[in-house]
Specification:
- The protein has about 375 residues and is α/β, with parallel strands linked by helices.
- The chain has three domains: about 70 residues, Alpha-D-Glucose-1,6-Bisphosphate, Chain A, domain 3; about 150 residues, ANL, N-terminal domain (Rossmann fold, 3-Layer(aba) Sandwich); about 100 residues, ANL, C-terminal domain (GMP Synthetase, Chain A, domain 3).
- It is built from nine helices and 23 strands.
- Strand 7, helix 4 and strand 8 form a beta-alpha-beta unit.
- It is globular.
- The relative contact order is 0.09.
- About 0% of the residues have low confidence.
């Protein structure tokens, strides 16, 4: 029997879950399609991932002509992309999924009596893992494609106790009535509510493998060269869809994230390529973002490096302001940051934008953001630089 990769191109729903089970029962693997992708991108993704067929929202099954088989035991291919938008397929097996599910369930001490709400994209491990936990436990499951206050209130009123969210959603909803909320995706904010757990993981690890700095049972963490976080776990991917296995010969995955291990707990500092070297000083963007978020006029912020002739790289901030605020002066922003951080951490460039484009996981889409930086949203001097 030739085992195939079957894409599911349908909104988050009970029908989506039924389709996953049917594909697995037939011995094939699943490729969930992000519903936010335009048609041209979906077509390209199906070809790149080598899907043999696609199941559409109406349940129709279409055979494709460019399929590539999957290996025995393969269950899932997740298309993941960074800020550049370059896609790669992460291949997970039934074994890696089962291990990830069991270790999470054990840490959370959740049971069949719990009721999970899945309200973030099922095309990514954060959302799909919610479904898989509910299926594993035989617990109740509510699925909705929107992660807003109305969805959350309706689910809570219907008995929901557990969910997963990304930080950008957390800032706009009330989660106080949940028993437990997993916060993954991009950096979690400081001072999380007592019922929220900050998780760290990758698509390659089948989601979060470190909860509030503590690895799940059976997950090994170490720091490699230059403090790069390395992970070894039975939840790791088998390989990428192109056949490349990123693990070392003894099973360790180099994550590309830098971290610090203190008192047995992991603190994630950021991506290797995010660290800003400005005038010989090293600046972590997340530290500067946390400082800027303390300004009441700021509703969202992103900090990154931009080229600078004098400093090599300049600490640059993109901010979204409250609707009734017309402008934020760079000098005001710098003075605020310098109250708690060294002066070299203060942004030298500032762009006020209407929004910071992000993926469904909350990752900033840098290519789109740079395009916004060339557009003027207000008449003041918010995008000037300081030498």
């Amino acid at each position: 029997m030739v085992r195939e990769l079957v894409a599911i191109d349908m909104p988050a729903s009970d029908a989506f879950v039924t389709t996953v089970k049917q594909i697995w029962d037939s011995g094939n693997a699943v490729l969930p399609i992000d519903q936010r992708l335009p048609e041209i991108s979906r077509t390209k993704l199906l070809a790149e991932m080598g899907a043999s067929a696609v199941v559409s929202a109406d349940g129709s099954h279409t055979t494709l002509g460019h399929g590539r088989p999957v290996e025995i035991g393969d269950a899932l291919v997740i298309a993941t992309s960074g800020s550049t938008g370059q896609s790669k397929g992460v291949v997970h097996t039934h074994d890696s999924i089962l291990f990830a599910t069991k270790t999470t369930v054990a840490r959370l001490r959740c049971t069949a009596e719990d009721h999970w709400l899945a309200c973030i994209s099922l095309a990514h491990v954060g959302g799909l893992s919610v479904v898989l936990r509910a299926l594993h436990l035989g617990s109740r499951l509510t699925i909705n494609s929107r992660a807003d206050q109305a969805t959350i209130l309706a689910a809570l009123d219907n008995g929901a106790t557990m969910t997963s969210l990304v930080p950008t959603v957390l800032r706009s909803v009330d989660i106080s009535r949940f028993k437990t909320v997993l916060i993954g995706g991009s950096n979690a904010p400081d001072n999380l509510p007592s019922n929220a757990i900050s998780t760290y993981g990758l698509t390659e690890t089948m989601g979060g493998v470190v909860y509030d700095g503590v690895p799940l049972d059976g997950v090994e963490i170490r720091l490699g060269e230059d403090s790069e976080i390395e992970i070894r776990s039975k939840s790791l991917l088998r390989c990428y869809r192109n056949g490349v296995d990123p693990k070392t010969n003894d099973g360790w995955l180099r994550t590309g994230d830098l971290g610090d291990l203190r008192d047995g707990g992991l603190k994630v500092l950021g991506r290797q390529d995010e660290l800003i070297n400005t005038g010989g000083f090293k600046v972590w963007p997340s530290t500067v973002e946390n400082s800027i978020r303390q300004l009441e006029v700021v509703t969202d912020v992103f900090v990154a490096a931009t080229p600078d002739k004098k400093w090599g790289s300049a600490v640059t901030a993109w901010v979204v302001l409250q609707p009734n605020v017309a402008n934020l002066q760079l000098i005001v922003l710098r003075d605020h940051v310098q109250e708690t951080l060294p002066d070299y951490c203060a942004p030298r460039k500032l762009f006020v934008v209407k929004q910071i484009p992000k993926s469904s996981l909350g990752k900033v889409q840098m290519t789109q953001l740079l395009k916004l930086s060339h557009e003027s949203y207000e008449p003041h001097e918010s995008h000037k630089s300081i030498e």
